[in-house]
Structures are given as C-alpha cells and as structure tokens.
Design brief:
- This protein has about 190 residues and is an alpha+beta fold.
- It has a single domain, classed as Serine Protease, Human Cytomegalovirus Protease, Chain A (Alpha-Beta Barrel), CATH 3.20.16.
- It is built from three helices and ten strands, in the order E-E-E-E-H-E-E-E-H-E-E-E-H.
- Strands 2-3-7-6-5-9-8 form a seven-stranded mixed beta barrel.
- The relative contact order is 0.27.
C-alpha cells in the first residue's frame, strides 16, 4: 500500500445520469464520486475512502469547498452536506445567487452545457492491481467542483431547477440523447 499524503492535489471527475440535480435554480445534490467503478483514468475509489477525511473535517470544522472548474479563486456556493453512503460520496448544497459565476453556472447547467462534478483530493493510500488500475483506499477530500468535462460516467448534472421552461429543455435533451444512442447502436 502506498501512502501518498504529501503528493499533489489530484482531480477526479464524475458524470452520469441522475448524479447531480439542481432545483429552484440554486439547490444542488448528487454524487461527486461513485464507489467500486473504474473511471476513465483507470482509478477505482473504495468504499470508505473518504471516511477519515470527513471525520477530520468535522473535528476541525473545516468544509469541502464548492468551486467552479477547480479554480480556488472561484468559489460559487457551499456544500451543506457531504457524506459517504452505499453508492458513493453524496453532496448537497447551494449555488450562491449573489455570485455572478454561480448564476452563470446555473444557466449553463440548465442549458446542458455543464453537466459534471469533480473532486479535488490528495491520495493518502492506494495500491495498483494486476490490471493496471489504481485502487484508492484513503483520500483527503478538499473540494467538489462543477465542471465541463467529468472523468466518471456516474456524476453528472441531471436536472435544473423548477423553472417553467426547464421541463421542456429536459424533454428535448432526453429526446436528443435517445436519438444519439439509437444512431450509435446502428
């Protein structure tokens, strides 16, 4: 097992249907990381990988930051809840409507231009398996960002708010996605 706590801050992107939902234009919830699935970078996050980090944060009253595209100069909201469950790392928070970039993020999510979540972390413990994958067993979580290009297929913006035109946009997006899948399978 490798202890890499002093290594560089890494980013793990995640996207996928039903992983991130935005309601009322500001409320965000979903999964920033999913356990036991190989991501596009060949990493697998083990169940419990965030446990120590979340406990340390609670003890020291430190919070996970909500950033725009991993830019520490662009906080766009707050995560009110960050926890592990049987599926992965669940996050719930709110975009701050007083922040211009947060309003832009909400508009981009609604339009479908932004649909991903990504975590910023340091690897504390990991091992390589015989298939070239890195199994991440302990991570030090720093931030969860809204991003354009997520790494993991299971953490993506799924819905945008309760605005009157949102349903139409989501129905159109779903129809386009269904058509894309149909064409790809033929």
């Amino acid at each position: 097992m490798i202890d890499e706590a002093s290594g560089p801050l890494e980013h793990k992107f995640c996207q996928g249907k039903s992983c991130l939902t935005v309601t009322n234009g500001t409320r965000i919830e979903g999964y920033a990381s999913v356990f036991e699935k190989t991501d596009q970078g060949g990493d697998v996050v083990a169940r419990g990988a965030y446990s120590r980090s979340l406990q340390d944060m609670a003890r020291t009253r430190r919070t996970v930051k909500m950033l725009w595209q991993h830019d520490p100069a662009q906080p766009i909201g707050v995560w009110d809840e960050v926890r592990e469950d049987e599926r992965g790392l669940y996050v719930s928070g709110r975009l701050l409507s007083e922040i211009a970039r947060a309003r832009e993020a909400a508009a981009l999510i609604e339009a479908g231009a932004i649909d991903g979540l990504s975590i910023g972390y340091r690897t504390r413990k990991s091992v390589r398996d015989g298939r070239g994958r890195r199994l991440l067993s302990e991570l030090d979580l720093w931030e969860v960002s809204l991003v354009t290009f997520p790494m993991h297929i299971d953490a993506r913006v799924d819905a945008m708010g309760d605005r009157p035109d949102t349903t139409t946009l989501h129905e159109l997006a779903a129809a386009i996605e269904d058509a894309r899948r149909m064409l790809a399978s033929h």
